[in-house]
Design goal:
With about 450 residues, this protein is α/β, with parallel strands linked by helices. It is built from nine helices and 18 strands. The two termini are about 30 Å apart. It binds 4-nitrophenyl 6-deoxy-alpha-L-galactopyranoside.
């Protein structure tokens, strides 16, 4: 428990987690999809036979000797070629639904400033591409029609806006320009919420610049305005800093925003580090590429198995896992991602009970998998099948609940449970063995659903 030792005007405004219905819904998602799409999908991490070393969506910042001549001017004209003829939002949404995603985070504008909706406030938008049509609208409508909640990714960093500054403005001219940029940012955000009222939340990024970190009052006022404008809106901890420049957590250590947004390509080691906060983890399939990169051969590509492990890791600690997709410049989801989505979908169709609405079970993690829990159902997801075909459960006596029956979700097979006297006096556990079918030839993680009853 934190005490407010430092008086703050623009720190956290809430103690504990949100308790409203919208946030309860967020907590039950389990699995989400992230999509990074913009003009960076055209070069796909490469140009004129040269390859950019960083994340493909950062390619505009390519510099030094390895960059093609006039690179940034070339990049800033790519939108004139943006014509994703294969783009079909309904196809993407259907695939996401089949995968088992319950929410989508979609890049409306990344750091390059290119707006995928027809923004009144800039010419650097979809309107001025050969494609012309509103992409954000198609995405929001298609996902909403599939029952998938949509969150809009928005980068505060905007390399295209003339008033954008990364460093704190030093001259009167810079300050004026930056004020203009702040109003532009506000206008675009209100525009997004006006145009796409089905939006469930805003996913902010690019908020680490010294100039933005100084905007504690402006950002706090804006956050309040956006929340008032769009009741229920969910905003993570990555939007603003307090008056001392503290981000995510204010000077008193309290989280700002509705959930912890710092779990980027990493997962917590234990539930304790989260101190009960809401959180999700956003994850790339390659090591660190969010936008489309045409070369997936040169790095390790996470398998559906890796991602299932991460998904259960997240849900078993009360978080959601959001898997990123980077469609190409034509609007196609790459075949490797489609295969991964299909495999995840096969898994969630059979085993979804272990992740949707399921939470931390309050038990120590077994070495061979993860526990999750919903009401009186304990889900045991097995990642590494024990070689003896027996799942041993060590349930602390203090848990006050015991397994009454067990069902293997693949095939709905009832499994036998026996109480085991290990003679481990005083370790506080009661041991149970669940016998797996001898012919279970599991090639992916599997789930045993265990009904719990009160134990005295
Ligand atoms: C940011 C972006 O720069 C990147 O292109 C991508 O959109 C990603 C989702 O977000 O990258 C970050 C932001 C924050 C951290 C790491 C990468 N972080 O807090 O560790």
């Amino acid at each position: 428990s934190k005490t407010d030792t430092i008086p703050l005007k623009y720190g956290s405004h809430r103690i504990g987690n949100r308790t409203d219905e919208m946030m309860e819904r967020w907590r039950s998602y389990g699995l989400g999809q992230f999509i990074h799409w913009g003009v960076y999908a055209i070069p796909g991490g490469h140009w004129e036979g040269k390859s950019y070393n960083g994340a493909a969506e950062w390619i505009r910042s390519w510099g030094g000797a390895s960059a093609p001549a006039n690179w940034q001017a070339t990049y800033d004209n790519l939108y004139k070629q943006f014509n994703p003829v294969a783009f079909d939002a309904r196809k993407w949404a259907k695939q996401a639904k089949d995968m088992g995603a319950k929410y989508l985070i979609f890049t409306t504008k990344h750091h390059d400033g290119f707006s995928l909706w027809p923004s009144k406030y800039t010419d650097y938008s979809i309107t001025n591409t050969p494609y012309k049509k509103d992409i954000v609208k198609q995405v929001v409508d298609a996902y909403d029609a599939e029952g998938i909640d949509v969150y809009l990714y928005f980068s505060i960093i905007d390399w295209n806006h003339p008033g954008y500054r990364s460093g704190v403005p030093k001259t009167a001219k810079d300050s004026l320009a930056y004020e203009d940029f702040k109003q532009f940012t506000r206008n675009q955000l209100l525009e997004l919420l006006t145009n796409y009222p089905k939006t469930k939340g805003l996913w902010f990024d690019g908020t680490w610049d010294a100039a933005w970190v100084k905007q504690s009052k402006f950002a706090d006022d804006l956050e309040k305005e956006l929340r008032a404008f769009h009741p229920g809106l969910i905003i993570g901890s990555r939007f603003r800093a307090d008056e001392n420049g503290k981000r995510h957590f204010d000077s008193n250590g309290k989280m700002m925003g509705d959930y912890e947004q710092g779990w980027e390509r990493k997962l917590p080691k234990s539930i304790e580090v989260l101190e009960g906060r809401d959180w999700d983890c956003v994850m790339t399939i390659p090591p660190n590429q969010w936008g489309y990169n045409s070369d997936w051969k040169s790095s390790y590509i996470k398998t559906a198995h890796d991602l299932t492990d991460m998904l259960l890791h997240a849900v078993s600690m009360n978080g959601n896992l959001v898997v990123n997709f980077g469609p190409d410049g034509k609007g196609n989801i790459r075949p490797e991602e489609s295969i991964t989505a299909a495999k995840l979908g096969e898994w969630t169709k059979v085993n979804g009970a272990a992740i949707y609405g399921a939470k931390y079970a309050g038990l120590p993690k077994p070495d061979y998998g993860y526990y999750t829990k919903k009401d009186n159902k304990l889900f045991l997801t097995v990642i590494n099948k024990p070689v003896n075909g027996t799942l041993r459960l060590a349930i602390p006596r203090s848990y006050k609940q015991k397994p009454a029956n067990a069902v293997l979700l693949i095939g709905n097979i009832k499994l036998n449970i026996t109480t085991v006297d290990m003679g481990m006096s005083g370790d506080g556990n009661i041991y149970y063995d669940i016998q797996l079918p001898a012919n279970l030839n599991a090639t992916s993680p599997f789930v045993v659903s265990i009904e719990l009853i009160n134990a005295t």
